[in-house]
Amino acid sequence: MDLIAPGQDDLHRWRPAVPAGHPRHPIRSSDAAAVWNGVVWGRLGRCDLAWAWWDSVDAPELQPWIAGERGRVLRELGLHARAAEVEEAGLSEARDLVDVVLLRLSLAADAVGLGQEAAARRALGTAGSLLEELPDDERVARQRLRRRWIEVEVALLTGSQPSDEGLPWMAEDGPQFPADHAAGTDFHAAKGLLFAGIVHDDPALLAAAAELAPPMLRWAVELARADRGDDGAERRAIAAWRKVVPPTEVEAGVAATPTARRLEALNRT
């Protein structure tokens, strides 16, 4: 497959800022740029193009990061067990401590998707302990956001009411965000608003999430809105899902997931 770079507008919107001189700054190396290109394509739902960029990277030190990004895409497509396999392999090679946190948080999210509460709590606890020891920077801030989201998922899995600590909130002049969101992109803002909307059962927060969400997240936001009786949300979820192109190797598995079957059934009605 040809390596097609995302457009500059998409790179600006969906790629987090990386400090100049950081080893993962896209100008620092072609391999770092390739990983970020894959991340952006993944946000946009072109998972096939994301895979092509990540497959082009040979740098061993970037493979755990790539494993985490592949796992994220697989999880968002509903393939939690497959994601966990990829992330476990990446974790065994990880030397960068933020990568270790990223992968352990990802494994916690996979366990939630598989209904494995104990495993989710273990992975979340291990990641959280390490996260608290790391020097503060933008990468660490984004992992703190992810930890908060997974804490909400674990609470929902167990049927308890999640805390809204660390989540966005709605003010008179629109959504407001905790400080860690300054390190993220519109994707992080949309994801935070999605969880805040679910925790508070707030249509305004979910509508704000939908305005910011890229296709890979938009369908999930719209299904959350549909579950709360929003007219038209199912149609919008289907439209967003149609923009998602899975990696060729997992197309059949994705088509068999509960989400894909639900959206296909809605499309037939």
Helix content: 55-70%
Q: Describe the biggest sheet?
A: 2 strands, antiparallel
User: What would you call the shape?
Assistant: globular
SSE ordering: HHHHHHHHEEHHHHHH
Residue runs with pLDDT of under 50 for 5 or more positions: none
Radius of gyration based on Cα positions: 18 Å
Q: Characterize the quaternary organization of these chains.
A: single chain
Adjacency order of strands in the biggest sheet: 1-2
Mean of pLDDT: 96
Task: Find the structural class using helix and strand composition.
Answer: mainly alpha
Portion in strands: under 5%
Distance between the termini: 35 Å
List how many beta strands DSSP finds.
2
Number of helices: 14
Keywords:
two-stranded antiparallel ribbon; mainly alpha; 66% helix; 269 residues; 2% strand
Describe the structure.
With 269 residues, the protein is mostly helical. The chain has 14 helices and 2 strands, in the order H-H-H-H-H-H-H-H-E-E-H-H-H-H-H-H. Strands 1-2 form a two-stranded antiparallel sheet. The radius of gyration is 18 Å and the shape is globular. The termini are far apart.
In short:
With 269 residues, the chain is an all-alpha fold. The protein contains 14 helices and 2 strands; from the N terminus they run ααααααααββαααααα.
Task: Summarize the SSE layout with pairings.
Layout: H1 8-14, H2 30-43, H3 47-55, H4 63-76, H5 80-93, H6 97-113, H7 117-133, H8 138-158, E1 169-171, E2 174-176, H9 186-200, H10 203-212, H11 215-227, H12 233-242, H13 251-255, H14 258-268
Antiparallel strand pairs: 1-2
Helix pairs in contact: 2-3, 2-4, 4-5, 4-6, 5-6, 6-7, 6-8, 7-8, 8-9, 9-10, 10-11, 11-12, 12-14
